[in-house]
Design a protein that fits this description.
The complex is a heterodimer. By secondary structure, chain A is mainly β. Chain A contains one helix and eleven strands. In chain A, strands 2, 4, 5, 6, 9, 10 and 11 form a seven-stranded mixed β-sheet that branches. A four-stranded antiparallel β-sheet of chain A has the order 1-3-8-7, with no helix packed on it. In chain A, a hairpin with a 6-residue loop joins strand 4 and strand 5. By secondary structure, chain B is mainly β. Chain B is about 0% helix and about 55% strand. In chain B, the strands form three sheets. In chain B, strands 2, 5, 6, 10, 11 and 12 form a six-stranded mixed β-sheet that branches. A four-stranded antiparallel β-sheet of chain B has the order 3-9-8-7, with no helix packed on it. In chain B, strands 1-4 form a two-stranded antiparallel ribbon. In chain B, a hairpin with a 2-residue loop joins strand 7 and strand 8. The mean pLDDT of chain B is about 95. At the A-B interface, strand 5 and strand 10 of A face strand 6, strand 10 and strand 11 of B.
């Protein structure tokens, strides 16, 4: 039991719509990272938040945005959905930034998004 | 940038067989190396890690040694079980880049 919970677990959207995915960090963790895992691929880094500030971003367009709240939970928002956005979206929390930088991440089970 | 290449799957073995999953990497400086495992219906879990050259990470009977001269971090287990069936990801973190994953190798162990 990692303690990281994500919602919803599955959802279906149509092209052009917007989606919000949510993540509750493991207790005591102040750093959250989001990853996109396309079918048959490894997870790809989207962005990371540390104490409510973005701390690093991968090669994703601006229509991918995020938030971290004072309780360190987090949201991933994707606007103007495209078919290629269909993937498993993973949230991972870390005790602090230094642990995140050394790869000590605790992953949730993910939110599977299908875009039709 | 940093990258990880791991052997293509799927890999199918009989119970008690020896397992090797190859992983090589490209990175600047001295990255930390990881193996993550994703069991069916579950999130990614850290299996083992190594933070410097010649370090050996181990957990649940799995081992991997950080080989800087060959830029490799191959995963091995002497005797696999049905419960080891999962997808295994090699990953690294180094420089200013966040965790970078390989494409994953699906392992199926038959009784």
């Amino acid at each position: 039991e990692t303690g990281v919970t994500q919602s919803p677990t599955h959802l279906i959207k149509t092209r052009g719509q917007q989606v919000t995915l949510r993540c509750s960090s493991q207790s005591g963790h102040n750093t959250v990272s989001w990853y996109q895992q396309a079918l048959g691929q490894g997870p790809q880094f989207i962005f990371q938040y540390y104490r409510e500030e973005e701390n690093g971003r991968g090669n994703f367009p601006p229509r991918f945005s995020g938030l971290q709240f004072p309780n360190y939970s987090s949201e991933l928002n994707v606007n103007a959905l495209e078919l290629d956005d269909s993937a498993l979206y993973l949230c991972a929390s870390s005790f602090d930034l230094s642990r995140a930088l050394t790869g000590e991440l605790f992953f949730g089970e993910g939110s599977r998004l299908t875009v039709l | 940038g940093n990258s990880v290449t791991q052997m293509e799957g799927p890999v199918t073995l009989s119970e008690e067989a020896f397992l090797t999953i190859n992983c090589t990497y490209t990175a600047t400086g001295y990255p930390s190396l990881f193996w993550y495992v994703q069991y069916p219906g579950e999130g990614l879990q850290l299996l083992l890690k190594a933070t410097k050259a010649d370090d050996k990470g181990s957990n649940k009977g799995f081992e991997a040694t950080y080989r800087k001269e060959t830029t490799s971090f191959h995963l091995e287990k002497g005797s696999v079980q049905v419960s080891d069936s999962a997808v295994y990801f090699c990953a690294l973190v180094g420089g200013s880049e966040k965790l970078v994953f390989g494409k994953g190798t699906k392992l199926t162990v038959n009784p």
